[in-house]
Design goal:
Layout: H1 15-36, H2 51-73, H3 84-104, H4 106-120, H5 126-147, H6 156-159
Helix pairs in contact: 1-2, 3-4, 4-5
């Protein structure tokens, strides 16, 4: 029990959580709208190809309402400060992979992504993680391209095999 002499703390709405709630609601509306306007959907059964997108949209909308409710009450726990350099390493690695995939091939581009992600998590120097990532990515490329006959972007390293 609390005594009436303590000052009452005023809870403030959590703006970030309200933005997340709004984004969830927008995604739910877009999914429902695109499902409703989907052409060629079979209407011969009650449960068809449009059922699952509606279930997902409904679930996202419920999550949006719950998130907004908790945000308005101010019940979200305090968030930690963001550490941007690791995020920049990972995003930079993804950007490098997307930009280099067609020119240098799967193994080298994915090896660079591996090294940048390892660096973002504070593991290993780049001179060690880049070659390790290229070797691992080449093994993955070999299994998928040669073993499963899937088409992955091939660069100079892959063309040797």
């Amino acid at each position: 029990m609390s005594d009436g002499n303590q000052p009452r703390q005023e809870r403030r709405p959590d703006r970030a959580a309200l933005v997340i709630a709004a984004a969830l609601a927008v995604v739910a509306i877009v999914i429902a709208w695109s499902t409703a306007n989907m052409g060629g959907a079979a209407t011969y059964a009650r449960i068809g190809p449009t059922t699952f997108p509606y279930v997902i949209a409904f679930g996202l909308f419920v999550l949006a309402i719950c998130t907004a409710y908790v945000a308005l009450r101010g019940d979200f726990p305090q968030r930690e400060e963001q550490n941007f350099p690791p995020m920049l390493w990972i995003v930079g690695g993804l950007a490098a992979q997307m930009l280099l995939l067609k020119t240098v091939g799967f193994s080298i581009a994915t090896g660079l992504l591996f090294a940048a992600t390892a660096r973002g998590f504070g593991k290993g120097p780049l001179w060690m993680t880049v070659p390790l990532g290229i070797v691992l990515a080449f093994a993955i490329w070999f299994v998928f391209a040669k073993g499963l006959q899937l088409a992955l972007p091939a660069g100079p390293l892959e063309r040797l095999f």
